[in-house]
Amino acid sequence: MKYITNNYLETVACGQKLGKLLQPQDLILLDGDLGAGKTTLTQGIARGLDITRPVKSPTFTLIREYQTGRIPLYHMDMYRLENSSADELGLNEYFNGDGVVIIEWSQFIAEQLPSTYLRIKITRQTALQRQLEFQALGQHYQHLLNSLFQDFDKK
Ligand code: ADP
Ligand code: MG
């Protein structure tokens, strides 16, 4: 399923709608080139989780935790994983934990990922336009995706 955003704010709004639907242990994978909008979408998701703290890219820290929202958010960026091994990160504790997990550049930990998740691939169409392509693996995420697209239709 695909969705087009025409500016930064539309991507934030899309993330916010998704964030409102999320539950503990939900896993969102964000793929796309540098500057595609992965962190921007995460800012919207955080908003949807009632997190007011600004969301910054975890490129150098690998994981940033936000504990002040409706449920915790664990925002990860695996782009610089070369420096530490995925085992050291204790990923399974996050996947089986109390919050939502968002992973940018998840292809770098492909072998460590659970079998079900919502994957969003963001592609830059023009300077301001992005295509968001949603792929839901597993029934839970298919339901989630259906709810999200119902929200899009409501406008
Ligand atoms: P990533 O995390 O994928 O590297 P960022 O979210 O950090 O990307 O950066 C996306 C950049 O693209 C920001 O500078 C943002 O202002 C810009 N941008 C322009 N149009 C859009 C859009 N429709 N959606 C998201 N970001 C956009
Ligand atoms: Mg980013």
Please, could you describe this protein's structure?
With 155 residues, the protein is α/β, with parallel strands linked by helices. The protein has a single domain (2-154), classed as Rossmann fold, CATH 3.40.50. It is built from four helices and seven strands, in the order βαβαββαβββα. A hairpin with a 6-residue loop joins β3 and β4. α1 packs across α2 and α1 packs across α4 (139-154). The radius of gyration is 14 Å and the shape is globular. The model has no long low-confidence stretch (mean pLDDT 94). Adenosine-5'-diphosphate binds next to α1 and α2. InterPro entries: P-loop_NTPase (IPR027417), T6A_TsaE (IPR003442). It is found in: Cytoplasm. This is tRNA threonylcarbamoyladenosine biosynthesis protein TsaE. Keywords: ATP-binding, Cytoplasm, Magnesium, Metal-binding, Nucleotide-binding, Transferase, tRNA processing.
